[in-house]
Amino acid sequence: MRQDLAVNLVASLLAFGVGWLGRALVHYYRTRIPAARVWRLDRGRRVVMVVGESGGPSSAYPKIPETDALAAMNLRQFLSQDLGLHEAATVRAGAFAMAADAEENLVVIGGPVHNRVWTLLSDRLDPPYVFRRFPDEFRVVCVESGEEYGESDVDTATLVDHAIVVLANNPFAAGSRLIMIAGCALLATSGATQLFARGAIRALARTYDTTAPLALVVRVESVGGYVRPPEVVAAANFPRAAANRTSPATRS
């Protein structure tokens, strides 16, 4: 009787162990590997999220736009869940220190209106999609074809916006990662971060070559306040920028 009980106990423990190991392997291959292929972080360096700020350079009390703060929160959550990375610093664009931060893994949130670090890095990368100012708005423009993507009202309840998402090596440190996310308007900045959510990041890793610098134009649609999953409407790989390690020891 005792022998049978011991055998059953050992069998149960083995079954539990095999089941736990199987679930862990499935999680690793379905979540950890695709996320690692997209993020491609240098785990020896920090992750620094650079968010925009409103109020202008002369403002004594600059504020972080709510959409930028939400985007940073989303990305920190995805990093924690999928890669087990629980620490990511967040700095305002005006507090970004070249000497301390330039060679880290950088996540730049918010475009040229509120985040001057976007302009600094975009100029060094020369991506195929850029923001251009029009009389009443910013639009995403394809450098080669001139095709434009912007914000529009489809009807009284539906708003469409577009964002640029860039995945590249940090031009100040070739081993570090640079990710840039910004919308023409506020909606797309936070909405585009859902590309890094668990299911979407698998599709991203499977569909695109993330070993080379990659630029995406992402469509984000809000219907009656419900933000639908983002959709990539244009994508292109582009040449890698040469790393420049001689960063000025001043604030940018």
Describe this structure in words.
The protein has 252 residues and is α+β, with helices and mostly antiparallel strands. The chain is 34% helix and 28% strand. The protein contains six helices and twelve strands.
Distance between the termini: 75 Å
Mean pLDDT, to the nearest integer, reads 85
Biggest β-sheet strands, sense, barrel: 9 strands, mixed
Low-confidence stretches: 24-29, 246-252
Amount of beta strand: 25-35%
The helical percent reads 25-40%
Name the overall outline. globular
Run of helices and strands: HEHEHEHEEEEEEHHEEE
Please state the CA-atom Rg, rounded to the nearest Å.
21 Å
What is the SS-derived class? alpha+beta
| Tally of DSSP β-strands | 12
Structure annotation, total helices? 6
Characteristics of this structure?
252 residues, alpha+beta, nine-stranded mixed sheet, 6 helices, 12 strands, 28% strand, globular, disordered C terminus
Give a summary of the structure in a few sentences:
With 252 residues, this protein is an alpha+beta fold. The protein contains six helices and twelve strands.
Secondary structure elements and pairings:
Elements: H1 2-39, E1 47-51, H2 66-83, E2 89-92, H3 98-101, E3 105-109, H4 116-125, E4 129-133, E5 138-142, E6 148-149, E7 152-153, E8 158-170, E9 173-183, H5 186-191, H6 198-207, E10 214-223, E11 226-227, E12 231-237
Parallel strand pairs: 1-2, 1-3, 3-9
Antiparallel strand pairs: 4-5, 5-6, 7-8, 8-9, 8-10, 10-11, 10-12
Helix pairs in contact: 1-6
